[in-house]
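Could you join me in thinking about how sequence relates to backbone shape in a protein? Would you write everything just below, so we can both look at the same thing?
***
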Amino acid sequence: MSASTSFLAVDLGASSGRLMDCRWDGLRFRLDEVHRFPNGGVRFGADLHWDALRLWAEIESGLRKFRGLRGDLPAGIGIDAWGVDFALLDERDRLIGNPYHYRDGRTRGVAAAVEAAIGGRELFRLTGVQTMEINTAFQLARMVMDHDPQLERARGLLMMPDLFQFLMSGEKRAEYTEASTTELYDLRGRRWSSEALAKLRLPAGIFPEVAMPATILGPLLPAVQAECGFSGGFPCIAVASHDTASAVAAIPGLDEGSVFLSSGTWSLMGIAVDEPNLSDEAFAGGFTNEGSATGAALLMKNMTGLWILQECARMWEAEGRPVQWAELEAAAAESEAFRSLIDPSAADFQAPADMRAAVQRWCAQTGQAVPESPGQMARCVFESLSFGYRAVVEELERLTGRALETVRIVGGGSLNRFLCQMTADACGRQVVAGPVEAAALGNALVQAVATGHVKSLAEGQAALRDSVEYRSYEPRHAELWREGFESFKKVVARGAEGRAAAART
């Protein structure tokens, strides 16, 4: 082994992407950012898309930068990204249109229509995935309903990270963890669900072979080598391509007594399990099962996360009142506790046109004080997220019989000390925060296992423990936060009652 080996991790997020150089010296990992670029939806008329070609150009730019900085070949490259979104290819493997963004409005009402015909419980039995309108299943169902010519023309479907792996390696595969986000994949049988595809009238022939994490797909294509200035090829590796699975792979100490929390635009909270939980209780609780880097499963719940506050901040900035995160935390700390609370899992906060108005409307409709200032809004969001985390931890304990004593936070939210301490206080459990760049580290770790530089995920996670800074938070003011949690549960119940009443009318 050389003194230092590079693994390139392409980590695509909903608001930014980056190419990271993760260097392994045989004892520790070190992560260096090579190239970072903005990402986001591009609106064309009424539709919201991803700019796939620009993202590919940015990946190539990152490769050229690495070549200029390092001058040597990396040991591998892997891609992780968000779930559910996909690209369609024609008979000559050409891109058919721009991939849709999961927040595009075309799927509104589709889940209800599908469930009326099939039943949400049946889809959960087949796939283990929570029903959300953004899921691949409902995006495709919309195309079937519309007799969309793009779907009729399609001869292949690739999820977003799989699309870029295809452009790098020429291999058309669906990586296991990413496929598991679609609500079309049978986690128990480790195959596409023929029943789900048939019930949704989807063409089974467009779904590619599934590759497990740590599969070497092939070398970087000669054309890409030439474009980016490399003298030879290096392995393109299917990592845990769903960014949540990659992030969880980078958590040392995720044992039977631990719950993970991937905190960022979304909050994804759960535990590692050997088999998917398809129980009525898991379905009723809104839990989802997705693939893990080990080839097993993650039982978790998806919640809208810091995006709620990010959207509020975006609106303040548009009004000429930009607010930095440090200012929001300070203002929240000075604001009244438990004044206003929301249910961060509610559909109201997934894609509203005006996030501040959505929060204020929720508070007014549930009989609470309406947050007006940035500090009040931030306090509302931070406390609500923290109580939402406690509710998930307690549900997981009931579902599994485990005693969950530690919350392990990864992702950008692990940098937010105010939220981390609130999470410890609200959950009444120790919080261990870090690593921040968990998805990129997990991506590189799976590559190291695939190439034999690291014997196992467990060995690599032990090395990560010595490679990354972690911060611990202990719970405080137990009685005060217990009372606040009781208020939160009442607010959530009132919100649910209000939605049910609105649906009846």
